[in-house]
Every structure is written in structure tokens, then in C-alpha cells.
Amino acid sequence: xxxxxxxxxxxTNIFTIMSKLAADHESINLGQGFPDFNPDPTLISLVxxxxxxxxxxxxxxxxxxxxxxxxxxxxxKTSGHQxxxxxxxxxxxxxxxxxxxxxISCAGPGDEVIVLEPxxxxxxxxxxxxxxxxxxxxxxxxxxxxTTFSIDWDRVxxxxxxxxxxxxxNFPHNPTSSVLTEADLDELERLSNQHDILFISDEVYEHIVxxxxxxxxxxTRPALAARTFVISxxxxxxxTTGWKLGYCCAPPALTNExxxxxxxxxxxxxxxxxxxxxQYCKDPNTYLGLAAFYQEKRDHLINGLxxxxxKPLPSDGTFFLLADYSEISDLPEADFxxxxxxxxxxxxxxxxxxxxxxxxxxxxxxxxxxxxxxQPATLNxxxxxxxxx
Length: 389
Known about the structure:
By secondary structure, the protein is an alpha/beta fold. Helix content is 40%, strand content 14%.
């Protein structure tokens, strides 16, 4: 039977490949981005209570009202922007579904969608499925004058054409751990004034930011909020990545289109998780202490890597840390990551995997990504092995 695949360039992703290698070689997996510890027992109890209270049938397509109220309140407290609970807040099956629905709802044949690479691996498939064209604009990699990846706004501006429909942003950034500054928001406002484009802002690590300035959501600028899908996830905030509970905040016209796709993509999200999260996250303390919690883990891994030949790069946000391995090997990033798993029992993710052409020399900077959302014993065991590399 002949099948005309809609995603001919998509194969087994790097996370699946590296996780299988880790299992095959009994390696410590610091690759895929999920915690190896449980969420707050209080949250788990609230899920059980919701089930026992009878919240086991279809909830509203847009999300249960209590959770949408909690999201709107949180967004107002953290960004200053007041989203309408009924017209501007939608609960989704994780951030990935929200991203897919946002792209498909607004992009189509003849449209171009700009992504900044390295970029999260669901963006380009979403653009392809919408029949639009992805335009990849590389971030400026670390150099002798800079230790972080940064946005070349002149390059972004020069990539905008009359066909440009959307610019997708992801900050705090996976995989580079970079964050937006007020100057970056100024540049975005300048672009929004000059061009009729939309923004999709993937902000799933919004509460894991280590800079003094904190997270700079596009929702903090009214001019940007007026043309942006702001997308986030409870999975990263509450250590529940497997629950796939996310949300999208956007102006009514954008929300209306997103919900049309959402309705027929998943319709809705499991009821007990929604009711539990609505109650749990009403307390700001459930997310306001998250940066300090993860900063301790980040610093622990940095201190460990400082005992090795790896050179840790600054991590301003997310639960990821990049490290330069140029003193150890000149292998391409994917090959080095496989070698590290097989010969030293620590699994990482090559940053090159987040580029449209992972084997290109311009995608390889001798940098790998560690996930530090792990128990201290896991990090210690990995550090002990890395010291021998």
C-alpha cells in the first residue's frame, strides 16, 4: 500500500534514540528533559480526590472554568496582562498540542513561519503539516566574546517577507537556556510595528529563570500580547510532564481559531488533572519557588562539571545546561553524545539535533545539553563518571 507521507523528513527523534541507547548501555540519562522525582504529594492527592468526587467525564472543550480562572490569575500576577477567562484562555493537551493548534489555525499554503534554531523539534513538523514553509534563522552561537546563544535581530528582520505569517519564539530557550531581555522585547515591538505578523511564544519554562530580571513574557507588552499566542505548560512547573497539561492565552480572534483546531485535535484534557491543578496552582508559592529549587540543581551540576574537561556554559533559564566538550573531542555533537553514552555511561543530547540540518558544520559547535532535573544521587553518579572522561 502506498502512503503519501505528510512528514517525509521525520524519522525517529533524537530523544528516543538516546533514551534507548541509555537503556541498552545502562547509562545515566541526563538527556531527555523530565524529572526523575515525583510531584508534590498534595497535588497527587488532589487528583485522587477529583476522581473520587466524580470528575471523570468530559469537561468543557476550552478547559474547566476553575483552571482557566487560575491561569488568568497567574498570568495577571506574573505579567500584568489580564486575559479574559472565557474568550482568551484555553487548556490544552500539553504545550505541544497548543503549539500545533496555533500554527495550523493561522498558517497555510503560501505562508512562511520563522523559527529560531536550534529549536524545539515539534515546530517544523507543525509548520509542514499546515502546508506553510519554515524559515530557519540561526541564533548566534557562543564565541570568544559571548558565552551564550543570542538573537541576531538584524538577521530576523531581513528574513521577514510579505509571505511571513508567524514568528515562533521559545524563551526561556530549549536547548540553549537563553532568556529574553527588555531589549529583545523592544526589538519585537519594532517588528510588530513594521510588519503584520503574529507571534507564538513558547514559555513553558517561565518559572525556571535564574536572572535577577526574571522571565520576560510577551504578555508584558500590550502591543505584543495583542498578536501573540502565549503558550505554557504545568508539566514543567509542577514536575508532571507525563500529565500533558498545558494552556494557551491569546486575544479572542486568535483563541477562536485555535479552539477550532483544538476541538478536533483532542477536544479536551482529562478532567481530574484539571480540577486538581486548578486548586493546587491557586497558591503562587507552588511556582514562585521553582527557580531557587532548580538553581540549586544547576549549580550542583556546574560545580561537578568544573572538575572535568567539560566547560559549562551559562544557564539563565530552563532545567538544561550546555557544556563545551572541545577539550575532549572534535567529533560532531551526535557522534560524541553516542560515544559518551557507550564508553562513559552518561547520556546527553547533542544541540545539533535541534537544527534543520544536524550534520552541517554550522549546526555543530562542540556543545551538548545536560538535563539537571534530577535527584542529587543521579547528578552525583553522573559527575563521578564524567570526571573520568
